[in-house]
Amino acid sequence: MSWIVALLILSLLIFFHELGHYSAARYFGVFVEVFSIGFGKAMGHFRMWGTQWQIAAIPLGGYVKMKGQDDTDPAARSQDNDSYNAKKPHQRIVILLAGPAANFALAFVLFFAIALGGPQTLAPVIGEIVPDSPAALAGLQSQDRIKSINGTAVETWKAMSAMIEHSEGTLAFEVERGAFVEIVHVTPAIRETQNLFRETIQRKMIGIASAGVAITQEFGPIGALGYACTETWEASKLIFLSLQKLLTGVVPAKELGGVVSIVQITADASNSGWMALFFFTALISVNLGVLNLLPIPALDGGHIMFNLYELLTRRAPSEAILIKLTVAGWVLLLGLMSLGLYNDINRILGS
């Protein structure tokens, strides 16, 4: 059942992406011939507003086929008033950006719903303390709850870590210890550690670990908007950074996942409650938005690149170059999809 939920969610994300393209295209008067979830032969379809809406056999994406646009024949053109090609470059760019924008907007809505539901996070309660660390030398103890640092209230472990990392000099910790409150002065030290991508970095730390105490965050509508903005932005940055690390070889190619990994993670999240499901759905939605902005000719980012060229030079790319780059883009995209699927199969066989 969880896998069915995962496939439905993936289809929903694709639907919203394509709905973004569709809505912008209709706004500029472009006739949309087909709105498809999936590729290949149509398994079911109906016609509304002149468009054929369909579900296709291969659920690995989707597309909106606009009049005058055909990725299988990039040189095809139609200059009718309701054609994609007849629109100005900046209008085409808006149409292309609308798909990824819809994914970011959906992620924002999901994070907003999570905020209103009361997400859990780690409390600033100390667990283990590293021997001879700044925390140990200052007298901090296990189960101490940090109330404030230099007079600034601390509510979460994440916020406390950020304050320590970006601090200057000695810090005054307001510590709740049992029934008493004490002020403990701690001077962070720069130590080597590993980041999310297992790179060795230097960071200011005091030598403490979380006790694993969870607290529920409470947000009003305004606070929820701030939470949604922050989480959407942080997720976008993380995915961009992950792509950079993948391209530079910091993250090995074997870590690349495909559609099977996406479905499996979403299925696992669906078994962990609605909040976990919303969270991973939002991450995947941001992921789709970011990936589609890459300047690969087979993706929205590649088409945006062509239209920017036309906007700046006031002439369209030559048909020969357009065809070659599009073919190269499809080869690269299919290669990445194949690598992701290969890694997925290896992970399944390995487990």
Describe the structure.
- The radius of gyration is 25 Å and the shape is elongated.
- Strand 1 and strand 2 form a beta hairpin.
- Helices cover 49% and strands 23% of the residues.
- With 351 residues, the protein is α+β, with helices and mostly antiparallel strands.
- The model has no long low-confidence stretch (mean pLDDT 82).
- The two termini are 21 Å apart.
- It folds into 2 domains: 2-118 and 251-350, no CATH class; 120-216, Pdz3 Domain, CATH 2.30.42.10.
- Strands 6-5-7-8 form a 4-stranded antiparallel sheet. A two-stranded antiparallel ribbon has the order 1-2.
Which structural traits does this protein have?
23% strand; 4-stranded antiparallel sheet; Pdz3 Domain; 351 residues
Quick overview of this protein structure:
The protein is α+β, with helices and mostly antiparallel strands and 351 residues long.
Integer tally of domains? 2
Sheet-strand content, in percent, reads 15-25%
Q: How far apart, in Å, are the first and last alpha carbons? A: 21 Å
Radius of gyration: 25 Å
- Give the fraction of residues assigned to helices: 40-55%
Average residue pLDDT: 82
Strand order of the largest sheet: 6-5-7-8
Number of strands: 12
Shape label = elongated
Note the main sheet. Answer: 4 strands, antiparallel
What's the order of the H and E elements? HEEHEEHEEHEEEEEEHHHHH
- Helices and strands: which structural class? alpha+beta
Number of discrete helical segments:
9
Sequence stretches where pLDDT stays below 50 over 5 or more residues:
none
